[in-house]
Design a protein that fits this description.
791 residues, seven-stranded parallel sheet, elongated, 31 helices
C-alpha cells in the first residue's frame, strides 16, 4: 500500500493514453462546458459568460435527494438574479459528476459533448481547510484527470482551471514563488490537503499542456463576495471567522495577510484572459496592496461591533475550548488554527494558518500577472470600506452575523448627496479618499470621501468631496485607538478631539472660499455645489487632478530630484502668503491650533501611550533607536516646547506630503498644486518642511544635502516676505518641528495602518530617523545664537 506522499506523487503522473487528437475537429465551435456552476465561483463564471459572450454553455451538475440538477442550477442562479429563461436555448444542463469516469454520462451524451465543446471552465472543487489529501482526491485530482481526458476527446479543448494561491505557501521558509515556479517539489511543505490536491491537479494540467492542450491556471487567494452587490458565501471560512470574532467579541492578534479577492473579479479573469500562443499560462492573483487581519479587525470595530485583540494562543484556547464555540461555523475548522498531528512529509505538530502569515505571503510573486491584466484593462476592485461593509450587510441578511445595536446602525446619508452621486455616475476614488474620509465612511456616513464624476471621454471632469458629519471623526478615531489599546482610546476620549478633526469639512470649505491673497494659483479650482441642497456646507466640488487619482501608485518625488526645487519654491510662496494674513485666517477658517505648553504637558499621557503603541512598528522599520528617540523627545518636552511656541507662525498645510500635492506642468516650469486642507493650521513653516522631507528624503543623501535644502527654503521665504531670517534659528526651529512630527504625526500613522495599508510607512519611519540624526549634527554645526524671535 502506498504511503500518502507516494500516493500523491503517483497521482501527479498523467496517464500515457491521454493525448489530444492530432488536429482540431472539423468545423468551429462556440460551446463551452462549465463545471461547478452551482458553486459560489462557478455561478458567477456562468453569469459573466451569459452576459458578456454569445457562447452556448453546457453545465455539469449533480442532483440531490430533493432536487434535480436542473432545479439546483435554476434556484442557485436566482440568488444572483439570473433567469435562464432570458437566454433562450443557450444553456444545457446535464446531470453528471466530475469524480466519475465520463462524468457519469451515458456514452452517447458524453461523445456528443466531446464533439461540441471547444473550451472548459473547470470551477468544480471540494474546498476544505481541514481535510487531508486523501479525502479531497476524488473531486480535486481525479475530477481533473477526467476533465483532461474529456479535453483530449474528439477535439482539442482549451482548459481554464481555478486553482488556489495556497499552492505557493508553506510551513517552512521558501524562496520566491512566481507564476512559473514548479510547486510539486514543495508539496511536502504544504500544510493543507486542499493545497496539495490543487498542486497535483496543476501537475496533471501542465503535462496536458506539454502534450499540446492549451491550459490557463488561475490562482486566486481567498475568494470573497461580489464587489458591488455584496453577495457573499455564507459558509466559507471568511464568514466563519467573522461570525466567531463578532459573536465572541475577540479575535487573534496576528500578522495574518488577509488577501481576499471579490468573486466577480476572479470570474472576469477566468473568462476574459485569452490563451495567447502558449499552451501553459499561470496567473497569481495576489493583491498588490492586500489588507492585514489587523485592518479587518479595525473595520469590524469601526462598524459598530466590539472585538478585542487577544494573543493568538489564548484566542485558540479560549475559542475552541469554550462550549459556545461548538455552535459556531469555525468550530469545524478548529484544526486549521489549533493544529493537528504531523502527516506525511511533516515532522512536528502543524498549525496550518501559520503558513499564511505575512512572511510567507511576501514570497508569492504575481508581477507577470499584474502586467498581463493591466494590458488587458482588467483591474482588481479595491477592498475598501464600501465593499467590506457590503459583505457585512449580506451576511447579516443571511443570519451569519448578528444585528448591531441602534446606536451603531448606519445613519442615512442625505438624499441630496445620494441623488447627486447617482445622477452623475460618480466613482469613489478609493485609495485617494483620504484617511479621514475613510474613517468617516466606516460607520455613519457611507458617502464621505472623494468622488469623480463628469465626462469620462476626455471632457471636463470634477470631483465632489463629501465631508464627515459632525461627531463622526471624533468618535471613530477614539474607536480606532481602542482597537489597538483600550487605554489609548480612553485618552482620546478624555482629551476630546486631540487632533482637531471635528471641523475638518467646514475648515476646508471656508479655506477654499477665502484663500489668502496669492495662494489661489497653488490650489485646485473649486466649482459650484448646485444640487446638493442643505448639504452644500459639507461638500466641495473641484477640478479633477488625474495625477492625484493615482498618487499612491506612482513614484513619489525625492529630495534629490530636480523638480524638488519647484516644490520648495511653491511651499515658500504658500507660507509667505499666510504670514501677513494669519490673524484674518484664524477668524475665517478656524485652523488647527498649535497647543501651548500647558496643553502639551496635559496631553503627555496621550503622547506616551501613542509612543508605546508605535514602538513595535518603529522597531521593525527604523530600528530600536526610533523608539528610544521618541521617549527621549517626550522626556524633554517641557524644555523644548517653550522654544517651539516662540517660533514665528504662518498658515501651514499641516499635512504637506506627496499624498496631497501634484506638480502642474502647464507653463515654463512645474507649479505646485496643493490640496486636502482639512487640518490646515497656524504654525511654524518648518513643520511643513519637516514632514515633506520625511516623506521624500533620498536615503543616504547626507548632512550637506539637508543643509542645502534648509538653506534654500530659508532663502526663498526670506525673499518672498522681505524679512531677515537667522540661519541658526531656522535650523533649530526645523529640528523642533521634526521632534513634534516624531511624537505626534509619525506614531499616529502607525495607528492608522490598522485602518488601511500604508505602503509608505516603512520608508517614512526610516527617513524620519535618518533626518533627525542629521538635523542634530547640523544644529550643532551652524553657528549663531538662537533668538526668541527672528522675523
Amino acid at each position: 500500500m502506498l504511503s500518502s506522499l507516494e500516493q500523491i506523487h503517483a497521482d501527479a503522473v498523467l496517464d500515457a493514453d491521454i493525448y489530444p487528437p492530432p488536429d482540431i475537429a472539423s468545423g468551429p465551435s462556440n460551446t463551452a462546458l462549465i463545471t461547478g456552476a452551482t458553486g459560489f465561483l462557478g455561478r458567477y463564471v456562468l453569469a459573466r459568460l451569459l452576459q458578456h459572450t454569445d457562447q452556448d454553455l453546457i453545465l455539469l451538475a449533480r442532483s440531490k435527494a430533493d432536487q434535480t440538477a436542473q432545479d439546483r442550477v435554476k434556484s442557485i442562479l436566482a440568488e444572483i438574479d439570473i433567469d435562464l429563461g432570458d437566454y433562450g436555448d443557450r444553456v444545457q444542463i446535464l446531470e453528471g459528476d466530475v469524480g466519475q469516469d465520463d462524468f457519469g454520462l451515458d456514452p452517447v451524451t458524453y461523445q456528443a459533448c466531446a464533439n461540441a465543446v471547444a473550451a472548459i471552465y473547470h470551477c468544480s472543487a471540494a474546498v476544505d481547510w481541514v481535510r487531508d489529501y486523501g479525502r479531497l482526491r476524488r473531486v480535486n485530482v481525479e475530477g481533473v484527470r477526467h476533465m483532461i481526458r474529456f479535453a483530449c476527446t474528439a477535439r482539442r479543448k482549451r482548459i481554464v482551471f481555478s486553482s488556489s494561491i495556497a499552492v505557493c505557501m508553506f510551513n517552512t521558509p521558501h524562496g520566491e514563488m512566481s507564476e512559473y515556479t514548479p510547486v510539486l517539489p514543495h508539496i511536502a511543505d504544504m500544510p493543507l490537503g486542499y493545497a496539495r490536491s490543487k498542486a497535483v491537479a496543476e501537475s496533471l494540467l501542465h503535462q496536458c499542456a506539454d502534450r499540446g492542450v492549451p491550459v490557463t491556471v488561475v490562482r486566486p487567494p481567498l475568494i470573497s463576495g461580489h464587489s458591488i452587490s455584496g453577495h457573499s458565501n455564507p459558509s466559507d471560512i471568511f464568514a466563519a471567522l467573522l461570525e466567531a470574532s463578532i459573536v465572541t467579541g475577540q479575535g487573534p492578534d496576528t500578522d495574518w495577510i488577509f488577501d481576499i479577492t471579490p468573486v466577480d473579479y476572479v470570474a472576469q479573469v477566468l473568462t476574459d484572459v485569452p490563451q495567447g500562443r502558449q499552451t501553459w499560462q499561470v496567473l497569481n492573483l495576489k493583491q498588490g496592496n492586500a489588507h492585514s487581519w489587523e485592518n479587518l479587525l479595525t473595520w469590524i470595530n469601526l462598524h459598530g461591533y466590539r472585538v478585542r485583540r487577544v494573543a493568538t494562543d489564548a484566542w485558540i484556547q479560549s475559542l475552541f475550548g469554550d462550549a459556545v464555540a461548538r455552535g459556531l461555523m469555525l468550530y469545524s475548522q478548529r484544526q486549521y488554527f489549533a493544529g493537528r498531528p504531523p502527516r506525511a512529509g511533516e515532522s512536528a505538530w502543524v498549525r496550518p494558518f501559520e503558513a499564511y502569515l505575512a512572511d510567507s505571503y511576501a514570497t508569492v510573486d504575481g508581477d507577470q500577472t499584474v502586467g498581463l491584466l493591466a494590458g488587458l484593462g482588467i483591474e482588481a476592485p479595491d477592498i475598501n470600506i464600501d465593499v467590506l461593509y457590503g459583505y457585512f450587510r449580506d451576511l447579516r441578511r443571511a443570519g451569519v452575523l448578528p444585528e448591531r445595536g441602534p446606536a451603531h446602525r448606519d445613519a442615512a446619508d442625505a438624499l441630496e448627496v445620494k441623488a447627486f452621486l447617482a445622477t452623475n455616475n460618480a466613482r469613489r476614488i478609493g485609495k485617494q479618499s483620504g484617511i479621514m474620509n475613510q474613517l468617516a465612511a466606516t460607520q455613519k456616513q457611507q458617502s464621505a470621501g472623494v468622488w469623480v464624476f463628469g465626462n469620462t471621454s476626455g471632457g471636463a471632469r470634477q470631483v465632489v468631496k463629501v465631508a464627515a458629519q459632525p461627531g463622526v471623526l471624533r468618535d471613530q478615531s477614539a474607536v480606532l485607538a481602542s482597537t489597538v489599546s483600550p487605554k489609548l482610546g480612553e485618552l482620546f476620549r478624555r482629551f476630546g478631539d486631540p487632533f482637531e478633526l471635528e471641523q475638518c469639512g467646514l475648515r476646508e470649505r471656508a479655506f477654499y472660499e477665502n484663500p489668502p491673497v496669492g495662494l489661489r494659483k497653488f490650489l485646485p479650482q473649486v466649482g459650484a455645489t448646485d444640487g446638493l441642497g442643505a448639504l452644500e456646507q459639507s461638500c466641495l466640488v473641484m477640478e479633477y487632478l488625474p495625477a492625484a487619482d493615482c498618487n499612491e501608485n506612482r513614484s513619489w518625488i525625492r529630495s534629490t530630484d530636480p523638480e524638488f526645487t519647484d516644490v520648495i519654491e511653491g511651499m515658500a510662496s504658500v507660507h509667505a502668503a499666510g504670514f501677513a494674513q494669519k490673524d484674518t485666517l484664524e477668524k475665517q477658517i478656524k485652523p488647527v491650533t498649535t497647543p501651548n505648553a500647558q496643553r502639551m504637558l496635559q496631553m503627555l499621557p496621550l503622547w506616551e501611550e501613542l509612543a508605546k503603541v508605535a514602538a513595535p512598528t518603529f522597531a521593525r522599520f527604523g530600528g530600536t533607536e526610533a523608539g528610544v528617540l521618541n521617549q527621549s523627545i517626550l522626556g524633554s518636552l517641557a524644555d523644548w516646547w517653550l522654544q517651539y511656541e516662540l517660533l514665528p507662525r504662518t498658515l501651514i498645510h499641516n499635512d504637506f506630503n506627496p499624498r496631497n500635492f501634484v506638480l502642474r506642468h502647464t507653463g515654463n516650469s512645474p507649479r505646485l498644486c496643493l490640496y486636502d486642507w482639512e487640518i490646515a493650521a497656524i504654525g511654524p513653516p518648518q513643520r511643513d518642511l519637516a514632514e515633506l522631507l520625511c516623506f521624500t528624503w533620498s536615503t543616504g543623501a547626507g548632512v550637506d544635502h539637508l543643509q542645502d535644502t534648509l538653506e534654500k527654503s530659508r532663502h526663498l521665504l526670506r525673499t518672498e516676505t522681505g524679512h531677515c531670517i537667522s540661519r541658526g534659528n531656522w535650523c533649530h526651529g526645523f529640528r523642533m518641528a521634526l521632534q513634534y512630527f516624531f511624537i505626534s504625526r509619525l506614531p499616529l500613522y502607525t495607528l492608522i495602518k490598522n485602518l488601511t495599508p500604508l505602503p509608505f510607512l516603512p520608508r517614512l519611519i526610516a527617513n524620519s530617523e535618518e533626518i533627525f540624526a542629521l538635523a542634530q549634527v547640523l544644529d550643532g554645526r551652524i553657528s549663531g545664537v538662537v533668538q526668541k524671535n527672528y522675523l
